[in-house]
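Need Fluoride-specific ion channel FluC's 3D structure for a figure. Predict it.
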Amino acid sequence: MIYLWIGIAGMLGAILRYLISVLLLADSLFPFATLTINLLGSFLLAWLTSHVFKKARLSPHLSTAIGTGFIGSFTTFSALSVETLRLFQDGNNFLGMVYVVMSLFGGLAMSHLGLNVSKEVQES
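Structure prediction for Fluoride-specific ion channel FluC:
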């Protein structure tokens, strides 16, 4: 049954990722949509796992469905990899490096922010 919940959550995460990419003009030179989605996903996963799942006392199956299914399909490392290679292949080396650095350090910063927001909410 857990596989069904992960699949449903994954479907919803993938649909949301697609809708956001359409709204943020995924055809632009710089992959703003994927960057935004991955940064938001980094924040959400850290915040959800450190606060919401514990406070709401969700079942491990539901937590897994949300974290692995929804957030896992919402964010995308493969798109980051392909878009980075395309930037380099098109001669946009500077944008490629900016994208990698923003993705890596931005993801870490957003995860850190998610954990800090969680701590602030728990202390208040």
